[in-house]
Write a structure and sequence with these properties.
Helix content: 25-40%
Shape: globular
Largest sheet: 2 strands, antiparallel
Low-confidence stretches: none
Radius of gyration: 14 Å
Distance between the termini: 30 Å
Strand order of the largest sheet: 1-2
């Protein structure tokens, strides 16, 4: 089993912009969507390592992104962003 470093997850309720610290997340999606999320996370990590970006939004990398059908995932670079 792989060991994991520090990981914190926040989320917002639909229609709110107040961040809540989450204990766990559940993803309901087809396998192809979960694979696409995996690719997004790998690419976001690359951008953080190589280009030192602060954060990356899923909505910026999905051509058909819609708040009606999708949830934005924002990946924050722990080297650049301090916890809330």
């Amino acid at each position: 089993m792989t060991e994991l470093g520090d990981l914190r997850i926040w989320g917002t309720l639909e229609g709110s912009d107040k961040s809540l610290k989450l204990d766990e997340i559940s993803i309901l999606a087809k396998a192809e969507v979960i694979r696409a999320l995996g690719v997004f996370l790998i690419n976001a990590a690359y951008e953080m390592d190589v280009n030192e970006v602060e954060h990356v939004h899923l909505q910026d990398s999905i051509a058909n992104f819609s708040y009606e059908n999708h949830v934005d995932v924002i990946v924050n670079n722990q080297e650049k962003v301090k916890p809330i």
